[in-house]
Amino acid sequence: MKKTKPLYEGKAKVLWETDSAGHMVQEFKNDATAFDGTKHEVVQGKGSFNNRISSHLFRLLAKAGVRTHFVEEISDTEMIVERLDMLKVEVVVRNIAAGSMVRRLGVEEGRKFDPPIVEFYLKDDDLHDPILAEEHVRALELATPDQIETMKRSALTVNDVLGGFLKEKGIDLVDFKLEFGTKDEELVLGDEISPDTCRFHDSKTGRIMDKDRFRQDLGGFMEAYGEVLDRVSS
Ligand code: ADP
Ligand code: UDP
To answer: What are the tens digits of pLDDT across the range 14-34?
Structure first.
């Protein structure tokens, strides 16, 4: 399979068309962004870490029976994926209170949720990805009622599989974001699963091992990604 032309360049990735209509190359860039792109740095090695961590986690999910777009890791920074029609929603699962939930609801950071919370957000940078009630997702026809149920079920399965796997590696899965798309009417998990899109905390020390190191200027940003890669691939 050969890359032909870039179809979409976002903040963190480039999606390339290929000579196979049903497939794309997802290339991970070295750009780190936060706060709707207002904070931006180029960080050597980031694209490679995210591609390798994401590939590993997609393979793990496939083994557990989750339908994902992942086909094959083809280079340090690129994977082949199935081309999807992406839904305009982001699905967030929260096991432990952090980030926007703490800011929005005044919940104390670190509060545990069992069962976990599943939330929907509108994928719209201009509107700053606002949170949506399920009723909004339905009324705005961002997803059908069936797709909403499937996304919720699938997100909780991903949480069980990833959470259990990471626990064994000494990492707590605090929260994460997923994106789904459709292929021939089937709902498929797309995009990436990496320290850019998840919160990972060291189970023993609570040390932050994800993009919050960049968001909060904590230092040791790529060292943390390197350690996540080492642990998930060990
Ligand atoms: P952003 O658009 O938020 O800046 P990225 O740089 O991560 O984000 O861009 C990747 C884009 O590719 C996202 O819009 C995502 O929804 C889309 N995407 C992810 N997987 C697929 C896929 N399999 N087929 C088509 N588009 C995809
Ligand atoms: N997230 C993401 N992309 C987004 C928004 C959130 O990958 O556009 C991830 C984020 O990294 C975290 C989880 O989703 O793991 C929940 O993010 P939150 O709503 O707390 O927002 P943030 O604190 O990132 O503003």
So the answer is: 999 999 999 999 999 999 999
Number of Cβ atoms within 10 Å of the Cβ of 226: 16
| Ligand 2 environment, Cβ below 6 A | 90, 92, 98-101, 129, 175-177, 197-199, 211
Does 23 sit in the ligand 1 pocket, CB within 6 Å?
A: no
Burial call 102-114: b when 16+ CB within 10 Å, e when fewer = eeeeeeeeeeeee
Q: What's the gap in Å between 204 CA and the centre of ligand 1?
A: 34
Q: Ligand 2 center to residue 3 CA distance, Å?
A: 30
Q: What is the pLDDT of residues 175-197, one digit of tens each?
A: 999 999 999 999 999 999 999 99
Q: Please give the Cα distance from 143 to 179 (Å, whole number).
A: 12
Torsion of CA 100, 61, 183, 145, to 10 degrees: -50
Q: Ligand 1 within 6 A of 47 CB?
A: no
Question: If you classify domain 85-232 with CATH, what class do you get?
Answer: alpha beta
Of the candidates 157, 177, 183, the one whose C-alpha atom is nearest the C-alpha of residue 70 is 183
The residue whose CA is least distant from atom 11 of ligand 2 is 197
CATH, domain 3-82, list 3.40.50.10540, 3.30.70.20, 2.40.10.120, 3.30.200.20: 3.30.200.20
pTM confidence score: 0.98
